Structure formats: structure tokens, C-alpha cells
Amino acid sequence: MRIVLLGAPGSGKGTQAALLKEHYSIPHISTGVLLREAVANATPLGQQAKAIMDRGELVPDDVMLNLIRERLAQSDVASGYILDGYPRNLSQAEALEQVLKELDLPVEEAVLIEVDADMVVERIAKRAAEEGRSDDTEEVVRNRMRVYEEQTAPVAGFYAEHGVLTRILGEGTIDEVQHRIRGALEQGNLA
Fold it and tell me: Which helix (H) or strand (E) holds 15?
């Protein structure tokens, strides 16, 4: 089972990926975690990324893609993976497709968790209050939503064209959303 999770910030991708990982016993590959681990372990790619981040710049696509390539080459991925946080734009989706083709690990299902924008703002505001984060103001979240709509939302079209996109309503309880995702995966005979 090889899955890419898509959705707006605050749509629940990370939460749902953790539950899928537990249920299906396949690795959850979060690009944020990969990046932090590579920096903490001072791997060659981690050192390269750290130098870029220390300059206040975004880690370029080629570095992120190489981190993903390294992770997907590990033996525990043979039974599948859940990729969360990547791809974020069409060029990343196309580059990822090439890497996955080289590794013979193509995406079998792209799951788009759809949530109303106002609900996302509400979820992130709640999370920010619970975690004491001041960086998730409504203005910041609405800007992240604009960036998502412009850059990341078209990735769903990429996977739809490849016949692997499933849209899931992301509203309701965590368990309800998880039930919908698993139902779609099982209906597609992936589970």
C-alpha cells in the first residue's frame, strides 16, 4: 500500500497518517520529520539543509527529494508507505513520480482530505491555543490557505489524471475521517 496524503494545512493529514501507520503497519514518512532528523543526525543532506535554513531560506526541492529518495530506499518501505507533506506543488509531484518509478514504488492511492477553509482556520486556532503557539494567527493561516490553493491544490489534479485520487470528507471526528479513508482504501483493494 503506497499512499500520498494531500490536504490543506490543518486538514488532519498528520493525525490520519499516524492512525493509518498503526493500522496497516507501514511507515509514515513526513517530510518535516525527515528534515529534522537529517539535521539532528548531521547527515550529508542534513548538513546541506541546515546551512540553507541557517541562511533563512527554504530547503530546495532537490534536497527534499533526495531525503525522500534515501528514506524510500530503506527496507521497511517494501510493504508500503504513507507520504505526508510532499509533494506540495506540480513540479514536486512530477519529480517524485520519477523517483518512485526508479525505485519501483509508484503511488497507488492519493487521498485528498477535503475540509472547509473556515474549519481549517478554526482547527489551527484551537491547536495554536492548546500548544501556546503565537505564529498561527488567523491572518497567517488564511495566507497559508491561499498558498495551498495556488500551489498545492493542483497536485490533486495531477493524481486525478493518473487515476489514483480519492477525495475524502475531512469533517467530523478523527475516527469518522479514518473510517472513510480506510473504507476507500479497502474498496480500492489496497488493504
Answer: helix 13-24
Q: Is 55 annotated as catalytic?
A: no
- This model's pTM is above 0.90: no
Task: Kindly compute the dihedral angle of the four CA atoms of residues 9, 113, 21, 142, in this order, to the nearest 10 degrees.
Answer: 10
Does residue 133 carry a catalytic annotation? yes
Please report which helix (H) or strand (E) contains residue 40, including its range.
helix 31-40
For the chain, the structural domain boundaries read 2-185
Q: Work out the average pLDDT over 151-156.
A: 88
Q: Is 180 marked active-site?
A: no
Q: Of 36, 126, 127, 146, which residue is the catalytic one? A: 127
**Is 13 noted as a catalytic residue in this protein?**
yes
Taking the C-alpha atoms of residue 157 and residue 113, their distance in angstroms, rounded to an integer, is: 14
- Cα 77 from chain centre: 16
2-185: CATH topology is: Rossmann fold (3.40.50)
